Amino acid sequence: MTSLSLVSADQNLPVDWEQARRLAYQAGRAAAAGAEEIPLTAADGRTLAEPLRALTDLPAFPTSSIDGWAVRGSAPWRPVGRVLAGGSPPPLAGDGTCVEIATGAMVPDGATALVRIEDSTTDDDGLVSGEPRRIPDWRLPGEEAHRGEELMPTGTAVDPAVIGVAATCGFESLRVLPEPRAALLVFGDELLTAGPPGAGRVRDSLGPQVPGWLRRYGATVTGVTGPVKDTLVAHLDAIRAGLEVADLVCTTGGTMHGPVDHLHPALAELGGEYIVNTVAVRPGFPMLLARVPGPDGRPRFLAGLPGNPQSAVIALVTLVAPLLAGLRGRPLPELPRVEAATDVPGRGDFTHLALAALDADGRAATPVGHVGSAMLRGLANAHGFVVVRPGTRATAGDLVPFLPLPLTPGERS
Which stretches make up the MoaB/Mog domain (predicted)? Predict the structure, then answer.
């Protein structure tokens, strides 16, 4: 059986919460590699694997920003044609001539000014007069970007605006980092997957909810397996199957060293290496993150989440979210600061993550009730966690770090 190596010098000392986040993030960044080319329509939410550079000047040609006249020389002007968007007009060859022009149309060579339709008049002979405005009403080539100019650096999060820029440049696809794949294994003979709890059995709440958190943190969920029987053989089989299809295998329960806790022996059997083994945070103890050789030789990751539901979510936000940010090539987000609406106690030598709801302005956080490690009611009424560092407490009015949950717009408003 292979022994696991440890990041911390002492296996019995839990890692500081902030350090654990950094270690998880660094592991993800180190493993982020490769790129794939996907259509623009599929790129929302991905990360650029290379800089986005302009394929041509933007605009690529002088472009009218008004409906009116493209004129040459002094008024009055004799109309000699019309230019619509999408056309390539001939040059204006003589002074005293003009063409009617539409917004977005190419300004013909030889034009000296544009005159808005509302600033012009046409006499009985059909001659146009008017005054151009002081600020030219056309966009010049390269006004927004020059050919080859870097518009977005590697690591940019692709959103609809970035997709729009790429489309404007003429791209039909983008090279992006692969989306991490995650599998969930639910451990525990005591779990029910249907019906109400009773007679010593509890309903599994992590199998239904963890995939949603993983997707919100940018992973593609390959599947949920469980409940997995509380045997070492069953654990090994399930983990190996997960490693075949996923970059990250999340497990629930079994992170202690009790008679049916087989995760640590399974990791040893698989040649795993701890990145973090236990974190000094409450709730959330114990949790772990390990690097495990994949079937193709490429490293995979295993995140051991506690079996208690709220503790499992805290393990997700502590270890899994930073790991996925690193794998996706994203920065580790800085924690915003909010005002503590009430006192929040510390937890001695541990970081306290206190579930809290934000006010309508998002500036003040009030701790919610029902926050035991086995409870989920508080989580369902919270926007995130007030972070109280070891050896401290938060007093009402203090500015404190806040770790937001990845809620979608409109949720819990």
Answer: 183-326
